[in-house]
Amino acid sequence: MWRSLCLFLAVHLVFGAEEDIVTLTAENFDKVIGENELVLVKFVAPWCGHCKSLAPQYATAAGTLKDKPVVLATVDATIEKDLASKFSVQGYPTLKVFTSGVVSDYGGGRQADDIVSYMKKQMGPAVSVLADAKELADFKPKEGDDPVVIAFTSEGSELATFYTKFAKANRNDFTFGQTSVTGDEKSDTIVLFKPFDDLKNVYEGPLADDDLKKFLVANSFKLVDEISPSNFKSYNERGLPLAWMFHGDDKEATDAAINVYRAVAPDYKQFSFVYVSGTKYGQMVTQLGHSGKKLPVVALEKLGGGPKWLLDESLDITEENLRKFLDSQIDGSLAPHVKTEAEPESLFDENNVATVVGSNFEKVVMDKTKNGGQYVGMNVCVCVWNGLLCLH
Q1: Which of the residues 25, 74, 91, 261 has an alpha carbon 20 to 30 A from that of 333?
Q2: Nearest-CA neighbor of 41 among 80, 11, 2, 8?
């Protein structure tokens, strides 16, 4: 009896909560987003197992939040394909937060309590109002704190209106303050304060979301920093090529290499300069293409499977060598590292089989100067044997 009662209550509680979820289509999407300051949208596919697991948690969260200024909604992405494409939905379920119409990725957990907690945080003021000089001083970051963003403007200004909307959409990435106490700053400016490097950066771009976001992301990182599992995601999202320095256990050599990085980094802000223990992460050293026999070493990597460039291990890490290395990558004169076997002494063996390796692939296979391609008109069989690409 108790089991039946519990099942009855559970089913009715879940279905009752599902009534608090708004179903969005192409016809009502813009209206719902436009009329509500805060909307959490779940993009799902009916066949998706993870979506089915999330459904009762999402429904419970919707019921808990039904009296709050937030709407929980769902989109069947298999039907509303244009909506899914518009918001770059590539897997299911995907959750997006719309704050005053501005979309951002949901960054909370998938249990009901996690959803409720995350969305409640989105409801509070995104911008801390700093009433006087003391509050302004206290708000600025101290050593060890994260950077903060402060708008020096008055309530109701064009800047204040833009800034408040931007802060609501980016509150999970940055801490925002606003004050009419200008102090040393010019009125109607946005300033990023940080407890490292040049201590502050003044935004001089247009009042546009993308431009301000790029400015904050670019300047909120240390010029040189130790990379770790806890901040790798941030560097990945930053999108700049990583200038890796893998150090060994020799503290003097490590400090010297880091100092070279610090001297060079201000002139090459198109890279993220990071360092990490090559002793602890030796596999990464060899995966990037270094031998693993010497530390410290330097490598450039475009994340996401992009090309890699190596500073020759025979060179010391000096300002001169590092600058030449970076300059040659920038001007394109430095060839990317290619993982390859040694080239054979003769391209064709006694059976007229050509052995192509990584370092001669372009030269042999893609050479269009030879009648539009060296192997045009031939029956070409491609096979891989012990890491070698063979054509015959």
Answers
A1: 261
A2: 80
User: For this structure, is 51 an active site residue?
Assistant: yes
* Residues sharing a CB contact under 8 Å with residue 207, sequence separation 6 or more, in sequence order: 158, 159, 162
Cβ–Cβ < 8 Å for 130, 139: yes
The rounded distance, in Å, linking the Cα atoms of 213 and 96 is: 18
* Cα–Cα distance for residue pair 144/133, rounded to 1 Å: 22
Residue 186 buriedness (CB in 10 A; 0-12 / 13-18 / 19+): exposed
Contact status, residue 130 vs residue 157, Cβ threshold 8 Å: no
User: Of residues 48, 381, 383, 390, which has the active-site annotation?
Assistant: 48
Catalytic residue among 6, 51, 383, 390: 51
Report in angstroms the alpha-carbon separations of 299 from 29, 48, 85, 192, 282.
47, 41, 36, 30, 13
Please report, in tens digits, the pLDDT of each residue of the chain (392 residues total): 444 444 444 444 444 457 899 999 999 999 999 999 899 999 999 999 999 999 999 999 999 999 999 999 999 999 999 999 999 999 999 999 998 888 989 988 899 998 998 898 888 789 999 999 999 999 999 988 889 999 999 999 999 999 999 998 888 889 999 999 988 899 999 999 999 998 999 999 999 999 999 899 889 899 999 998 878 888 888 889 999 999 999 999 999 999 999 999 999 989 999 999 999 999 999 989 999 999 999 999 998 778 899 999 999 999 999 999 999 999 999 988 876 565 677 777 777 776 665 555 666 665 655 544 444 444 445 454 444 444 44
